[in-house]
Amino acid sequence: MIEAFTKAQLERDNYMVNGPPQREVGEPIPKISLGDMLVGSKVMDYMRKQQDIIKAAEERAEGKRK
């Protein structure tokens, strides 16, 4: 357990001396939706997959009607 405190202290000291770490210029910032925050990203991923399946089924049905 002392290792965790030591590591945290070293990281803090490094931050105080060098400032925040620099990110790559092209590194994207992950987008988080309100739904991800409220119900969790795993549930939202499941719901998005369901929506994609429904949309694909509707498009197939629309294609058969024409």
Total E-strand runs: 0
Low-confidence stretches: none
Helix content class: over 70%
Number of helices: 3
Looking at how many chains there are and whether they match, the oligomeric state comes to: single chain
Mean pLDDT across the residues is 85
What does this structure look like?
With 66 residues, the chain is mainly α. The protein has a domain of 34 residues. Helix content is 73%, strand content 0%. It contains three helices and no strands. The chain is elongated and about 65 Å long. It starts with a helix and ends with a helix. The model has no long low-confidence stretch (mean pLDDT 85).
In short:
The protein is mostly helical. The protein has helices spanning 2-18, 34-39, 41-65. The longest helix is centred in the C-terminal third of the chain and has 25 residues, at 41-65.
Give the SSE map.
Elements: H1 2-18, H2 34-39, H3 41-65
Keyphrases for this structure?
mainly alpha; 66 residues; 3 helices
